[in-house]
Amino acid sequence: MLPSDMVGGVSATRAANLEASGEALGKFVGQVDEVLSALEGSAGSPAKVGAQTIRATSLTSGGESEFPEAHGLYKQYTRVHQELTTLSKILHLQIEATGIAVTGARHGFEKLEEEQRQRFWAIQTEIGKLQRKKDDSQHANDPKTGAEL
């Protein structure tokens, strides 16, 4: 049985502490927008991270049997680069979704424009796809060495 001061599993005091003012949410939305803008302009933006690639011939001009270490390094660089690109995209999307969610919390989700609601769910779908792709690529690696199979 719940204590008399519990409402929906949370005490009235805690519920009051969780209640967010419109001013606080507005300030938070501004901070989220600033972080998103800073990320887009930084070297960590998904587009800039994705563009930072190298060719296998940058490390060696010989075949894989001639200098296998260079080819191994290239494969690891490519794997890590793909991971960082995916993580950068997910971070960017999560920040954008947080901004939409905070706006919805401030004004009420029913008052969000339909375009914002659709964008929020599109972001969730895209994040899910990126994470599944990431998980699939991790499972395609040798569990003992972490090397690609």
Question: What do you see in this structure?
Answer:
The chain has five helices and two strands, in the order ββααααα. 66% of the residues lie in helices and 3% in strands. It is elongated and about 70 Å long. The mean pLDDT is 79. It has one domain (23-139). Residues 133-149 have a biased composition (Basic and acidic residues). Residues 129-149 are annotated as: Disordered. This is Mediator complex subunit 11.
Compile the SSE list and pairings.
Elements lengths: L5 E2 L2 E2 H7 L3 H20 L4 H6 L16 H40 L6 H26 L10
Antiparallel strand pairs: 1-2
Helix pairs in contact: 2-4, 4-5
Q: In percent terms, what proportion of residues is strand?
A: under 5%
Whole-angstrom Rg: 23 Å
Q: What structural class do you assign from the helix and strand content?
A: mainly alpha
Broad shape: elongated
Strand order of the largest sheet: 1-2
Low-confidence stretches: none
Region (Disordered): 129-149
Biased composition (Basic and acidic residues): 133-149
Protein name: Mediator complex subunit 11
Organism: Streptomyces olivaceoviridis
Question: How would you summarize what this structure contains?
Answer:
With 149 residues, the protein is mainly alpha-helical.
